[in-house]
Structure prediction request, 298 residues.
Amino acid sequence: MVSVLHVNNIAGTAGLYFDEQKRLGLKSDVLVFSKNKFNFSHTYLIEEKKLKKVYNFWKIAKDYDILHFHYKSIFKKGSDVLIWKMLKKKIIMHHHGSDIRDIGEMPVYKKHCNNIFVTTPDILKWSKDSIWIPVPIFIDDFKMKNENNDSDIINIVHAPNNREVKGTKYVIDAVEKIKRKGYNINFKLVENTSHEVVMGLLKNADIVIDQLLIGWYGMVSVEGMAFGKPVCVYINEELQSYLPNNPLVNTDKDKLFDALIGLIEDKELRKDYGKKGRNFAKDFHDVRRVTKKINSFY
Prediction:
């Protein structure tokens, strides 16, 4: 039986792979080096530094065939990959965005990792030999809200983990402009809270706004779609071929106001985008499908 140790748990994705791989009969666990404010799951926690950190890591990692690193390996320059390779471990590097965007692939990863994954196709240009693995969700966790709601208030949710990267100032500007026009909206800017709280707000949203600058959609978009919500996000024209049946409201910082007005004024349009998004999340992002693809490289 193949055994895999996921190292780091970015946006909770490693925990999802862990659950599904265990269900499939693999020995799978998650190791992290700090507690996460979002309460994402883990099996092992190592908070020691330097040599003690490496020693404690090896005591755990020696019992696994595959080391699946998320975001980065242990040493800053990735040189620890040479150690694990010499010890006959299969090495997977899984990039999640800011670890490689505008930086490029570390030569040691390119030379010594068995496979390199990226979570979004916009970062393929920074690691040209990598494999795109869509971010996973467990679709059964996303129960769609009963739409028998006669309230005139439109709930809009934006949940950035980095305001500058996500273009939050443009979101706030558009929302304030909409309020000045007299529209009855309730805007929630969600930061520094648990994943459970974020999920609750997304479930009760009428419109979700994700990132407006990067050019691809993130985890908030996937979760919003899974709840059957229309999601506003910027998709770069060069990447639109990856979304032949785009279920997202493709907008940018300059067009967000108009996109939001269109959704606010048209309930059927919101329903249409919500239905398309839910089907896309189920068909493309469910962890059972994504894990099957990952396991094929093990």
Remarks:
- The CA atoms of residues 78 and 108 lie 6 Å apart.
- DSSP finds eleven helices and twelve strands in the chain.
- The radius of gyration is 20 Å.
- Residues 141-285 form a domain with the Rossmann fold fold (CATH 3.40.50.2000).
